[in-house]
Structures are given as C-alpha cells and as structure tokens.
Design a protein that fits this description.
Structural class: alpha/beta
Distance between the termini: 13 Å
CATH topology of the largest domain: Rossmann fold
Strand order of the largest sheet: 6-5-9-10-11-12
Radius of gyration: 18 Å
Number of strands: 12
Helix content: 25-40%
Strand content: 15-25%
Largest sheet: 6 strands, parallel
Bound molecules: ribose-5-phosphate
CATH architecture of the largest domain: 3-Layer(aba) Sandwich
CATH class of the largest domain: Alpha Beta
Shape: globular
Length: 243
C-alpha cells in the first residue's frame, strides 16, 4: 500500500501525521508500505551550516525508516544526496517536465529555461528539453548568517525573449526575485517563475511579481494558490513501477 502525505506547512503537524500513518499501517498488518512524500520537510538541511545547528535531513530520514516505511518516494528533493541515507529503496521524481509542458501548452515553446543558481542548472536543462530555447543559470551565493544573496554578473541570451525560471523551491522568494530582476534588466520580454515546492513565506509571491515576473506557477506538492500543475501523473507512474 501507499501513504501519500506531503509535509508542507504546517510541516510539524504534517510530518507527525505521516509518521503515525506509516506506523499504524504496519501495526495493522500492511505487508509493505510506500511513503509518498511529495515535499519532504526539513530535507534542505543536509549539513551543519553553523555550529549548533541540527542536521534535520538526517533526523527525518531516520524517522520515516524507523516507523516502518518500506519504500520512499519524493519529488525534486532539494539535496538528493540525503536520500542515500535511506536503507530502503528510494525514488526521487521530477516535476520539471510537467511544469515545462504547462508553459509549452501556454504557447511558450522556444522560451529560455533559466535556473537561479548552479544547483538548479539540471532543472533548467530538463525544462529546455521541452521548451527548446536554450538554458542558463546564475552564479548565486547566499550568506549563511544574513541570508543575503550575491550574484556574479553575467550576460544571458534573453533580450526580447520569454524566459521561464525553474527552481525546486520558493521560500522567501528572494532567490527568484533576484533572478527575475536580472533577466528583466537584460531586457527579457516575459519572465515566469516556476517551482516544484511553493512554500511561500509571507510576502514571497508579491516579492517575485514586484521584480517584474509575469506570473508564478507551482505544483501541488505544497498546497498554495499557485498550484497549477499536478504531480499526480509522475506519482502514479512511480507507484505502478515494480520494485
Ligand atoms: C536553493 O539552493 C534552492 O534551490 C532555492 O533557490 C532556495 O531554497 C529558495 O529560497 P528562497 O525563496 O528563500 O530564496
């Protein structure tokens, strides 16, 4: 059987519910339980950035395993390397093709696929396989203490062109805001923000639009007003695959 429970805000409540559901399914005799967690809370913290911080990704991986999950399925894990800590089989699905297909259907075939940092470059490449307008990324650095974002100046082939910026997650919106501003300053025509996990801390949506984005599109991995694209097709496919 599969238990589908995402762990977006309120993440603590949703995470506890996930653990209780998994445990109960096993207690009641389920032979094998797949945990489908489209957004995996706490998984961004895969190392101790600052002294005293918790490596929360390791804790949540251990919890899911220890309540008895037999298989784990997630979507665009921010740091796929944390999935190696699982001893059970794991699948890290991608929703980028679904997002890119949405833009293609909206007439944006040929748009430039962009990533707001080099960690997301593979997402832009995946978007480009659908949109076929080329891809690129920013060199972004974020100060661990202040959260301030700095980017290396670079010119992109975006003048008078539509651009889709793909990222795995939007939290404060500062990363996306920076990318949109730079693209608009380089005279991109329409810039759209696309993400798999629209966490959206307060003000994130407005921040991105105020930078000049035409629109913000997210998947339903996290419940939000920008849920335009459903990840159900990739989850169904994964569940139909034999282990
Ligand atoms: C960073 O590496 C991630 O891919 C996202 O770009 C980042 O977590 C987004 O955070 P925020 O919206 O707070 O800038």
């Amino acid at each position: 059987m599969a238990i589908i429970q995402t762990t977006g805000p309120p993440q603590d409540t949703n995470l506890i519910q996930l653990l209780l559901l998994l445990r109960t399914a096993k207690d009641l005799g389920a032979k094998s339980v797949t945990a489908v967690v489209p957004y995996f809370a706490y998984a961004r913290q895969m190392r101790r950035g600052r002294s005293g911080e918790c490596v929360s990704a390791e804790v949540v991986v251990n919890l899911v395993e220890c309540v008895g999950a037999d298989r784990f399925v997630t979507v665009n894990a921010h740091a796929p390397e944390i999935l190696e800590w699982f001893k059970i089989p794991v699948e890290n699905l991608s929703a980028i093709t679904l997002l890119a297909n949405f833009f293609k259907q909206q007439g944006l075939e040929g748009a430039f696929s962009f990533a707001p940092d080099d960690g997301a470059l593979d997402l832009a490449k995946e978007g480009d396989r659908v949109l076929k307008g080329g891809y690129g990324c920013l060199d972004k650095m974020r100060d661990k203490i202040t959260g301030e974002i700095n980017v290396v100046e670079k010119a992109f082939n975006v003048k008078d062109r539509d651009v889709v910026v793909f990222d795995d997650i939007i939290s404060t919106g500062a990363t996306m805001q920076t990318a949109v501003k730079i693209l608009k300053a380089q005279k991109a025509r329409r810039v759209y923000a696309a993400c798999v996990h629209p966490i959206f801390a307060e003000g994130a949506f407005e921040r991105i639009l105020s930078a000049g984005a035409e629109g913000v599109v997210g998947t339903d991995c996290v419940s939000n007003k920008v849920n335009v694209v459903s990840v159900a097709p990739v989850i169904v496919e994964a569940l139909q695959r034999q282990l």
